[in-house]
Design a protein that fits this description.
It is a single chain. The protein is an all-alpha fold and 80 residues long. The protein has helices spanning 2-28, 34-79.
Length: 80
């Protein structure tokens, strides 16, 4: 039974040490300000919208091209 008590005390000390070290490291971290986060978020949203529109237009273009190609092939094959 004394071994169990020692093991618990040892683990408790390791957990406490881990928490202390974690707090020390978090004090070294510099977090962005609210205005930085807002600015970055705005940039991300604008980029997402831009690329969504860009990919939509590319998709529409290729759909138009392939529909025209399909029409042309059907016209040629239908004439034979």
């Amino acid at each position: 039974m004394p071994e169990v008590v020692e093991a618990v005390k040892e683990k408790k000390g390791k957990v406490g040490q881990f928490i202390r070290e974690t707090r020390e490291e978090l004090e070294k971290v510099s977090f962005p300000s609210a205005s930085d986060v807002r600015g970055t978020t705005l940039i991300v949203i604008i980029n997402v919208i831009f690329f969504a529109v860009f990919l939509f237009l590319i998709d529409r273009f290729w759909t138009y091209v392939l529909d025209g190609f399909t029409w042309l092939v059907n016209r040629i094959v239908g004439a034979l």
